[in-house]
Amino acid sequence: MHGLHPDSTECGPPSREEMTVAVYGMQGGCKPFLEHARLSHLSERGARLDGIEHHPVPGDIVGVEYKRCQATARIVWVCERGSLGTEIGVQLLSSEPCPWQQDLGEAGCPALA
Length: 113
What we know:
This protein is an all-beta fold and 113 residues long. The chain has a domain at 1-7 and 41-58 and 69-97. Helix content is 0%, strand content 47%. Strands 2-3-4-7-6-5 form a six-stranded antiparallel β-barrel. It is globular, with a radius of gyration of 13 Å.
């Protein structure tokens, strides 16, 4: 595992409710990538993305798109999950609107279905 995982030193279990987000950027600063990941553990300032296939590094800047809303985020931690792909934690840049804001309930907690 690279970087700090917010919950523990182990990879967290997948969230019960999964949503898809597009993730895009420049791998290694020169090779563009675009892929879809499962979005979970939402907050107003970030989220966990599961199933990433490229090799991200903490500190990388990526774009995320959810329900046609785009934002820029910094990767704050990375956890390799073998055949399940990579799990990353992203923090939205302070000037960015939260693309999943409508899916958060009161006090920035995920809305319960």
